UniProtKB/TrEMBL annotation:
Family: Belongs to the RRP1 family.
Protein name, entry field: Unnamed protein product
Keyword Metal-binding applies: no
Region (Disordered): 1-23, 184-212, 263-292
């Protein structure tokens, strides 16, 4: 059998185990995957197709996982692959493969499974920040990460499901804050949406008690403008008015940016007040039925 065929056969069998209905089989496959990713990626780079096949299997691993606690543990385990297993050279393509699979599978995702995939995406955003921080915000790594997002899931393309893009906007600053300032949260131990919202509200109330000088010191080496660049591009260029406004209201005007000495958005707000009077095409027409 040719070498390429053997590799393809091995990958397919591995993916089948990851997507197995049997929990023990899936758990064993996941442990094997962690070792495989750490060793193989160091010796020979993955192709984009290989990683998409792997993430297709991991997607169904999450799909078959039942009950909140196991789902939470699995989401954390899968997200930790980004920060703990993938070498820097393969990080961007690993990120890209994840979002490509999520975008492809999202239209077929039923309402009973939405929450666990929202949780997985939140954790992936978090662990991606952790990877960048662990690598001391390496310029090349950050650039490649932002590029894959800007050309993919955060491109502003109307074909990207709005449920995915809106969720990234909702969690981006929260997870940035947790990683950069090492804030303790209960989100990994409690996936009840109500409890999480209460905790986030409490954190925001306590923000005023933080020492600003200490906060700014933690941000000295963090490329905040690069990390916000895809959202600024969406705000400026996205065809959909509802998406532009979502980025403006729920991210670029977030008061935390001002407390971190990042553009508060007040000038942005003044310069875009006429948006409400735009004679834009109907958002429903622009979505063309995509997303949830």
């Amino acid at each position: 059998m040719p070498k390429a065929a053997k590799k393809s056969s091995k990958t397919s069998a591995f993916v089948k185990k990851l997507a197995s209905n049997d929990r023990k089989t899936r758990d064993q496959a996941l442990e094997t995957l962690k070792k495989f990713l750490s060793t193989r990626a160091s010796s020979r780079p993955f192709s984009e197709l290989e990683l998409q096949k792997l993430w297709k299997g991991l997607y169904y691993t999450m799909w078959y996982c039942d009950r909140p606690r196991p789902q939470q543990r699995l989401a954390n385990d899968l997200a930790s692959l980004f920060s703990e297993c993938i070498p820097a050279d393969n990080f961007a393509i690993f990120v890209q493969a994840f979002w490509v699979v999520m975008i492809k599978e999202w239209p077929d995702l039923d309402q009973w499974r939405l929450d666990k995939f929202y949780m997985l995406m939140r954790y992936v955003v978090r662990e991606s920040f952790s990877k960048l921080k662990n690598e001391k915000w390496n310029e090349g790594l950050v650039d490649s990460y932002i590029k894959c997002l800007s050309e993919g899931v955060l491109s502003g393309d109307v074909k990207i499901p709005n449920g995915i893009v809106f969720h990234i906007i909702d969690v981006w600053l929260d997870e940035f804050e947790r990683v950069v300032f090492e804030k303790e949260t209960a989100s990994k131990e409690d996936d009840e949406e109500e409890d999480e919202e209460e905790e986030e509200e409490e954190e925001r109330k306590n923000d005023g008690n933080d020492d600003k000088e200490e906060i700014l010191q933690l941000l000295v080496d963090v490329p905040t403008e690069k990390l916000l660049a895809p959202f600024r591009a969406i705000r400026k260029d996205a065809l959909m008015k509802v998406l532009r406004e979502k980025v403006r209201d729920d991210m670029l005007l977030d008061p935390r940016l001002q407390s971190w000495d990042i553009e508060s958005g007040e000038k942005l707000k003044k310069s875009t007040e006429n948006d409400d009077n735009d004679d834009d095409e109907s958002d429903d027409e622009k979505w063309n039925g995509f997303g949830n």
